[in-house]
DNA sequence: GCTCGCGCTGTAAACGTTTTCGAGAATAAG
DNA sequence: CTTATTCTCGAAAACGTTTACAGCGCGAGC
């Protein structure tokens, strides 16, 4: 089952077998056919380790995520692995668990397995760690962190647009008093979303006068619950809220129901992310979808540019969001 | 950065370096120390491809699942990968998407990457496909399919016990009219759960007289919704229901609320699986947990027995379930 | 007729480890 | 003191590919 046996059966040298398998145009089509027949008859497939050793290419793409258990990631993994597979790459996924030591370990594994490229889809990533990847000239792609560079790509998510369509959706439903449940300030994406919200509202002539209308939900269910309770205690409570995150929105849903009010009749709620759970809340949550599959595919494409197409520069595609209207929003009822 | 440079710096042969790295007891402790120092100074790490080629062991563990997007699997993947990592294995995960062609492709990938063992955690698996793995003597472990054999292990889930504790929980709360929302009959695990339910009830002297008290929920939310509506339409409706699956239970929750009744005051509901969503339903769902992390760890252990310990036979650990009591069950109120 | 180029194929040297075999030195046994 | 044994190590042969390099046959150009 080695290349030598194929060579013997096809009555050629191993070099020719190798070339035929790689569809090298230099081999005569008849010989190639002979080789392929032998391959089929012997049910031969190449030893990837020997191949990697000789060629220097592992045909492994690395994918580093924070936590595969976080509902954001499985789709990402799936999409990436799928795209990789189509280009003949296997995917090596590593989970950092939001932990520095494990992150370092993840990088090390990528290095050891000699990944041809690695997608780093987690925010907690130290500059010093990626340095080694950079030194070894392995292409990388990040999610929304920095500018692209040599062999380094970046996926830019258009959060502002996502927030914008959500806000316009609420405005078009007649809402005027719109509150925002913000996320942790140390998260760049959370900050961007809040700023976008404020700007969008003031662009529409609805600039927020009461600062309590923007309150922290911490990107968690309980945080959203508490934050919504604060909003409900206001003299003039909002008729609609936009959450920085679906979990926050779910917490808000509970708080509203808990207060004896109804969604969407009394208050409209919009989330952000479109995690799977969002479709199963009661009522199903209107939310801004972050297209995970697309992110995954773009990420691999960026790597492929460098790995297969021989490009040296990085790309920076922008990822558009999409408003998914479900049942948690309804027209304002004066 | 090759073993040769380390050898040169430590003034030994590559053989000795290799041995030292593998903590071979035959190398003198002083020379070993010299080697390790050189390794550190050069920041050397071995080339896995060369290693695999020479040793014939890839240190890759395969994991085949149906659909990583299905909330059952991420934890499984995580647990498995974690356990594998601790033993120095990287995990290659493949998703079959419930599709025969992709399943075959997954197996092929395992073969090509020369996985040292593979865990097959999906039911749709053809005998003919695993034949090739068997031929190549790669250890396998399955989830609840057949008996173990040479290099083949099986994880047996104790569904009967899980159903039993759930039923006893309801009985101890005073419930006597308990219904069952069953799953698809072509799923072995679904059949087992239903049989266990019936037997458990008759053991308690509460044998079901009305066959309509066991009705198909199809393991889906909408199926559970419809099934529960049928139960609610009965003259004597149940005071508690056990679902074969959490999704079914969630559908039931909706149907009950939809009918103007309350959980758990009017009807108690118990699910099965303990998917993440179960903790976030309203009310949070009492359910029987299928310990995914434990399944994953056991699965890897089974492989490790064969891969590292040199055992030839397969194991068959049994996986115990656990009742998670949340807020969807309450004492019967006459 | 000679050279050149082209199309095709084979030889053999990598790639970086592991591992067998054997040798030399030191130690123990007799 | 000789012989066996144990320790420690190195030389070199795998492992199964890829890929420079060279070679061969053959038709074309001169």
Ranges of chain A where pLDDT stays below 50 over 5 or more residues in a row are none
- The general outline of chain A is elongated
Question: What's the number of helices of chain A?
Answer: 12
Q: Helicity of chain A, in percent?
A: 40-55%
What pair of chains forms the biggest interface?
A-B, 40 and 40 residues
CATH class of the largest domain in chain A: Alpha Beta
Report the portion of residues of chain A in β strands.
Answer: 15-25%
Q: What strand order characterises the main sheet of chain A? A: 2-1-3-4-5-11
Estimate the mean pLDDT confidence of chain A: 93
**The named CATH superfamily of the largest domain in chain A:** Response regulator
What oligomeric state do these chains adopt?
homodimer
Structural class of chain A: alpha/beta
CATH topology of the largest domain in chain A, by name, is Rossmann fold
Distance between the termini of chain A: 77 Å
Q: Architecture of the largest domain in chain A in CATH? A: 3-Layer(aba) Sandwich
Q: Largest sheet of chain A at a glance?
A: 6 strands, parallel
Question: Using only CA atoms, what is the Rg of chain A?
Answer: 26 Å
- How many E-type strands of chain A? 12
Listing every helix as H and every strand as E from the N terminus to the C terminus, the arrangement of chain A reads: HHHHEHEHEHEEHEHEHEHEEHEE
């Amino acid at each position: 089952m080695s290349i030598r046996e194929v060579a013997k059966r096809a009555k050629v040298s191993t070099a020719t077998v190798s070339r035929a398998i790689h569809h090298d145009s230099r081999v005569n089509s008849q010989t190639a056919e002979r080789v392929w027949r032998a391959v089929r008859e012997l049910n031969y497939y190449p030893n990837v380790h020997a191949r990697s050793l000789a060629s220097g290419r592992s045909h492994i793409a690395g994918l580093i995520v924070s936590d595969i258990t976080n509902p954001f990631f499985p789709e990402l993994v799936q999409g990436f692995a799928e795209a990789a597979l189509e280009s003949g790459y296997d995917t090596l996924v590593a989970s950092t668990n939001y932990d520095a030591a494990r992150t370092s370990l993840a990088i090390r594994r990528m290095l050891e397995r000699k990944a041809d490229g690695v997608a780093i889809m987690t925010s907690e990533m130290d500059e010093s760690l990626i340095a080694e990847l950079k030194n070894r000239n392995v292409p990388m792609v990040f999610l929304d962190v920095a500018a692209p560079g040599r062999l380094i790509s970046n996926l830019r998510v258009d959060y502002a647009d996502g927030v914008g369509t959500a806000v316009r959706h609420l405005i078009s439903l007649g809402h005027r008093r719109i509150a925002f449940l913000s996320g942790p300030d140390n998260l760049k994406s959370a900050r961007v979303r809040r700023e976008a919200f404020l700007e969008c509202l003031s662009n529409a002539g609805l600039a927020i006068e009461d600062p309590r209308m923007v309150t922290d939900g911490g990107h968690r269910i309980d945080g959203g619950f508490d934050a919504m309770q604060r909003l409900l205690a206001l003299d003039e409570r909002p008729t609609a809220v936009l959450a920085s995150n679906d979990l926050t929105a779910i917490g808000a849903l509970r708080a509203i129901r808990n207060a004896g009010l109804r969604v969407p009749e009394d208050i409209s709620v919009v989330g952000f992310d479109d995690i799977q759970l969002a479709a199963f809340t009661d009522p199903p949550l209107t939310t801004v979808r972050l297209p995970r599959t697309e992110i995954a595919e773009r990420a691999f494409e960026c790597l492929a540019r460098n790995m297969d197409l021989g490009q040296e520069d990085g790309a920076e595609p922008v990822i558009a969001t999409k408003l998914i209207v479900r049942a948690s929003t309804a027209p304002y009822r004066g």
